[in-house]
Each structure stands twice: as structure tokens, then as C-alpha cells.
Design brief:
68% helix; three-stranded mixed sheet; 484 residues; disordered N terminus; mainly alpha; two-stranded antiparallel sheet
Length: 484
């Protein structure tokens, strides 16, 4: 396939690839069912299946998969039920297993690895670079990791040990070792000759890293400076020394912010001794940002981990138990709050119909506040000095919203039940509960962040519990005071 054809192929809609694969799988299943209905001896049926199915639809499916990028195959595997997923996985060429395992989600990766034996897993891992093996390491059995270690060169073993040693959310976990570094005392002509020795440059190579004899980082040489300068110019004369450097121990989200802020394609990773230990590239950063965004969505909903949408009912149910159990406890608490005001509700049945409005509006407002705060925390925009000002601002916003929308709700209550005191109670309850919502919407993520926890974990569940219970208590308490 020509380069132009391949580029066009990779830009095709992955959804269309999925539909084509599903269509071929459907035809395969239909034909298999037809054959099994035939009244033939068992051996003849097997021979017929081998002849018709495997030589037609499965061969076509294998040809289709061979033409797809590993990322497209990963998407297709994630979108297929378990049985079809494993059938497609069996048809993928074995030399691409490692690349695809890196691309699929962790939950789906588990289902694929469970079907592979020791030799297959070792071969798949052996296709990858040290940094990629480190990504797979948590999911691989210990005996497979031992096999992989034995198959690596001494340099690759050290790189793998280094990559595994870093925390999952650190820069060290994102960096790769496939980079080009040069000395500063050579000419650009020597650099050009050196580069021509490569069949191809490492992906996302926009600059070369300049080091001294002890591998201490000196600066970077952008590729465009090799082109626009005379060949005899020395690297140290045209290299850039004022450049972004990343520490392998710092948080990966800080690196992501640097890439976004400075429009980086790659960045050097330099240890505390000033030595170049690796690089981080924009494609890895984008993957990290996407994974973090998905994780935040799951955490806000109270899900413990990423979930394979086609996982067993039992496993999926267990993933959702923790926060459902907490939600059940808070719901019981909210019901006890309502139970404490049964006498008031009995005298004013209208209160039962208006309570959800007070709680619902406050819950939505609290989620808005929390979303803004979590985003600001991720961007590093909140500090101890400005937290108080943020709280005052959110209280002011909630106060204004409480007066406006509480007033609208109060008028609604008045026109429905022709009671001025009820309208005033409704307005007051909305105002007070929105103030509560602003306070907890700011306090919960800040407290979680201070404790070193992910501020998104279960935040919406906790906010709903507090605004529901608080809303019921405030509304029914005010009704008891002013209406009874």
C-alpha cells in the first residue's frame, strides 16, 4: 500500500470499520447456525464448517483486521461482546498482539490476557519497547515478566526497571527511552550524517537532545535549525538552552499542563543530577489526558474502576456497589429527616410536592460549583491564598441565584396553593440550601485534594446526599416554624 493510500486508510471513520466487522461476524454466525441444522454426521458438519465458514467470512474478516491500525482494532475489540471479541482477537496476527494490548482499555485488556498462555504473552510483550512493557506489567503474570526480563538486553532491562519504579501518575511513567541525543561539540554536518543512518526517526521527533560526555542535559537542537544553518556550524552555537525540562518524579498532570501551555511536541526528562533519562511526547500526554478525563467521569459517578461494558453482570454490579451502599445510607438518613417532620407534612400536604424542588436545584448548583473547582485544581489555579475569595464568590453567586430562582419558586408555590407564608418559606429554603450547596461544593473537593485524594471520587454522590438532606431539613424546619 502506498503512503498516500495508507494515510487515507487511517483517516477513515473507525465506526465504519466496526460496522463492517460486525457484519462479517453476523454472516459467520448465521452460516454456522445453518450448517449445524443440517442433518449430517458430526464429522461432516465440522468439515463443512471448516470449508465454508473459515474460507469465506473468517478469511475476509482476517484480511480486514490485517489492514487496520492497532488503535482501530482496539476500538473494535472494546465495542464487541465477549464471544465476538475473543473470535476477533484470535484472528489478529500474533506479531501485533503487543501493540493492540497497549491500545485497549485496562478492563478489556484483562479479558484478552486471560485467554493467552505464557508463551503468547511473552511473545506479545517482547514486541514492545521498555516503557510500553512497563504499562503492561501490572496485568502480566510474574512468570511472564521473568521471561520478558530474560529476553531483553542489559540496557533494556535497566530501562524497564526504571520505568516500573515510577508512580503511575508521575512523569517517569509517561516517558519513553526511544530518543536521539547528540554531543554539543560536533557540527551540523556530522549530525545530518548521523541522522541519515536511521531507517526512520522515533515518532514525534521535533528536536534532538544535546548532552555532554556524562549524559548531562545541555539543551535541545530543533530539527529546523539543522536545515536553516550552515553545515559547519557547531551544535552548541545553535542549540536552545532555555527549554522546558521535566522531572521524572513530578506529577504527570503538571507535564500535561506544560505541553498544553507551551504547545510542546516532545520534552526532555532530566533527573536530579541533571542527566537525561528519557523524553515525553505529545501522543502519550494526550492519552494521559483522555484517561484522566474518563477516570474523573467514573469517579464523579462513584464507580470504583473502569468497566468493560460487556463484562459479566456480577463483575459490573460489584464495581457499582461501594457508592450505591453509601447512597442507600444517605437516602435512609434523608428519609429520617422527613420522618421527623411528619406532623408538619400531614398538616400541609403541599410540602411533600415542593420538597424535591428545593433539593434538586441545590444539588445541581453544588455539582456546577464542584465541576469548576475540580477543573481549577487540575490546572493548579487554586491556592491557600485565593480559596477564601473563591468561597465568598460562590456564596455570592448562590445568594443571587437563591433570590432570583427562589423568588420564582416562591411565586409558583403561591399561585398553586394561594399561601403567602408558603411562598416565603419556599424562597427562604431555596436561598439557604443554595448557600449550603455552594459551601459543600467548594469544601468537598478542596478537602479531598488536601488529603491527597482524587477530588472527583464520588463527589456527586456526596453532594446529592448533603443537598437532599439539608434541603429537606431547611424547608420542613422553616415550614414548622412559620406555617404550623
Amino acid at each position: 500500500m502506498t503512503d498516500a493510500g495508507q494515510e487515507h486508510h487511517y483517516t477513515e471513520n473507525v465506526q465504519e470499520h466496526l460496522k463492517q466487522v460486525e457484519s462479517l461476524l453476523h454472516k459467520h454466525v448465521l452460516l454456522e447456525e445453518v450448517i449445524h441444522r443440517q442433518e449430517l454426521p458430526r464429522e461432516d458438519r465440522h468439515a463443512l464448517v471448516d470449508t465454508l465458514v473459515h474460507k469465506q467470512h473468517l478469511a475476509e474478516l482476517r484480511h480486514k483486521l490485517d489492514s487496520l491500525h492497532p488503535a482501530d482494532i482496539a476500538f473494535i475489540l472494546e465495542a464487541l461482546p465477549i464471544e465476538q471479541r475473543l473470535l476477533v482477537w484470535d484472528l489478529v496476527k500474533s506479531e501485533r498482539d503487543g501493540e493492540i494490548l497497549i491500545e485497549v482499555s485496562e478492563a478489556v485488556r484483562e479479558s484478552l490476557i486471560a485467554t493467552m498462555n505464557r508463551e503468547e504473552l511473552s511473545a506479545a510483550a517482547g514486541q514492545l519497547d521498555a516503557d510500553e512493557i512497563a504499562d503492561l506489567a501490572p496485568d502480566l503474570p510474574q512468570n511472564v515478566m521473568r521471561d520478558v526480563f530474560k529476553s531483553l538486553s542489559i540496557e533494556e532491562r535497566e530501562q524497564l526497571r526504571a520505568a516500573i519504579s515510577y508512580e503511575k501518575d508521575s512523569v517517569g511513567a509517561l516517558m519513553d527511552f526511544n530518543m536521539i541525543h547528540i554531543r554539543g561539540d560536533i557540527s551540523l554536518e556530522v549530525v545530518s550524517r548521523y541522522l541519515r543512518r536511521f531507517d526512520e526517526l522515533p515518532d514525534h521527533t521535533d528536536q534532538l537532545f544535546v548532552v555532554d560526555r556524562d549524559d548531562r542535559f545541555l539543551g535541545v537542537l530543533p530539527l529546523n535549525r539543522i536545515v536553516v544553518n550552515e553545515p559547519e556550524v557547531i551544535v552548541s552555537k545553535v542549540m536552545v538552552t532555555d527549554t522546558i525540562q521535566l522531572d521524572p518524579e513530578e506529577k504527570a498532570d503538571q507535564a500535561a499542563q506544560a505541553f498544553e501551555r507551551y504547545d510542546l511536541v516532545s520534552a526532555p526528562v532530566v533527573d536530579e543530577e541533571g542527566k537525561l533519562v528519557g523524553r515525553v511526547t505529545v501522543n502519550v500526554v494526550l492519552d494521559f489526558i483522555r484517561t484522566e478525563s474518563e477516570s474523573d467521569l467514573l469517579n464523579q459517578a462513584g464507580l470504583r474502576e473502569e468497566e468493560d461494558i460487556f463484562a459479566s453482570v456480577w463483575k459490573s454490579a460489584q464495581n457499582r456497589w461501594t457508592w450505591l451502599a453509601l447512597n442507600l445510607c444517605t437516602a435512609f438518613f434523608a428519609s429520617r429527616v422527613i420522618g421527623a417532620f411528619e406532623g408538619t407534612i400531614a398538616k400541609f400536604v403541599a410540602l411533600a410536592t415542593l420538597m424535591p424542588i428545593v433539593a434538586g436545584i441545590a444539588g445541581n448548583s453544588a455539582n456546577q460549583t464542584t465541576t469548576i473547582i475540580i477543573r481549577s485544581l487540575a490546572l493548579g489555579q487554586i491556592s491557600h491564598d485565593n480559596a477564601r475569595r473563591l468561597l465568598l464568590k460562590e456564596l455570592a453567586i448562590s445568594g443571587l441565584n437563591g433570590l432570583v430562582w427562589g423568588g420564582v419558586a416562591g411565586l409558583f408555590a403561591y399561585f398553586l396553593y394561594h399561601s403567602v407564608p408558603l411562598g416565603i418559606v419556599m424562597t427562604s429554603a431555596m436561598l439557604l440550601n443554595l448557600l449550603v450547596a455552594a459551601t459543600v461544593g467548594l469544601a468537598i473537593p478542596l478537602l479531598m485534594h488536601k488529603l491527597g485524594r482524587d477530588p472527583a471520587i464520588g463527589s456527586s454522590v456526596m453532594l446529592t446526599a448533603i443537598t437532599d438532606s439539608g434541603g429537606f431539613f431547611i424547608f420542613l424546619g422553616l415550614a414548622t416554624i412559620f406555617l404550623v
